[in-house]
Design goal:
two-stranded antiparallel ribbon; single chain; alpha+beta; eight-stranded mixed beta barrel; globular
């Protein structure tokens, strides 16, 4: 009997040790995957994006806006020729004022699967890439354009967007810019909230008509915050979408306010 108990104890120890090893291996793999993703995009920023630092924008945003309203396009230079050599699916670059970690290329494959769990080099990646809705036109000229990114725990990709749920965060981070080979598009955030995965916020293909205006009115009405920003059927908007709680997503919506060559 004692031998059986001893054998059982040994087996339990082996099983327990095995479970711990598997858990450690999975944790290491996950952390390594995130580190590789961060390194990939950090290298892209260093090689192909020359810009004033996000910290400088955050610290001096009010002064910059008073003295130089053009900092968002004059102080940023994206090497799209070089980026196209890395991946021809790169169609733009998104950059937030004062949120350094949201500073990424935007990819477009014509579907919503390719870059969901694939990095910019086509390798498997938990973080994937920031990518455009497959049914949108890749020129950012649709009245409603949707961009997706994962809500990573280390705040990479669109992980930082959840900060908008914190009181006072919006006031200092209300704008972002999307750069393309031809234009720099300036956007101001007018609404944000959690939505079900099947919410009509994922509707695209609008024309400048009453249906589109009703859609915009609904987005403003349901927003967590009243920004006071008016959006009309003549405006073009961007929805940034990331994961939230189970079966829900967190969205941020912004209206185009300027564009420059």
């Amino acid at each position: 009997m004692k031998k059986k108990e001893k054998l059982s104890t040994i087996l339990l120890f082996i099983v327990g040790a095995g479970c711990i090893m598997v858990a450690l291996a999975m944790t290491f793999t996950m952390l390594w995957d995130r580190w590789q993703s961060n390194q990939t995009f950090e290298t892209l920023r260093e090689d192909y994006c020359k810009a004033i630092s996000a910290e400088a924008v955050l610290e001096t945003e009010k002064e910059i806006e008073k003295e130089d309203d053009n900092f968002w396009y004059e102080d940023v230079e994206i090497d799209f020729a070089g980026l196209k050599e890395v991946n021809e699916d790169i169609i733009g670059w998104i950059r937030f004022d004062g949120i350094e970690i949201i500073d990424y290329p935007i990819l477009y494959s014509g579907d919503d699967e390719k870059y969901l769990r694939t990095d910019i080099y086509g390798k498997p990646s938990t973080a994937g890439c920031i990518f455009l809705e497959g049914a949108n036109n890749p020129d950012f000229e649709d009245y409603h354009t949707i961009i997706y990114g994962h809500n990573m725990k280390n705040l990479s990709m669109f992980g930082s967007l959840k900060k908008y749920k914190e009181e006072g965060f919006y006031e200092d981070h209300s704008c972002f810019t999307i750069y393309t080979e031809e234009k720099a598009y300036r956007y101001r955030i007018f609404a944000y909230r959690d939505v079900p995965e099947t919410d009509n916020v994922y509707t695209i293909g609008f024309a400048p008509d009453a249906m589109y205006q009703n859609f915009l009115n609904e987005m403003i009405k349901k927003s967590y915050i009243d920004t006071g920003i008016s959006v009309t059927k003549e405006d073009k908007i961007i929805t940034l979408s990331t994961c939230s709680t189970e079966n829900y997503r967190f969205i941020i919506q912004a209206v185009r306010v300027e564009n420059e060559n």
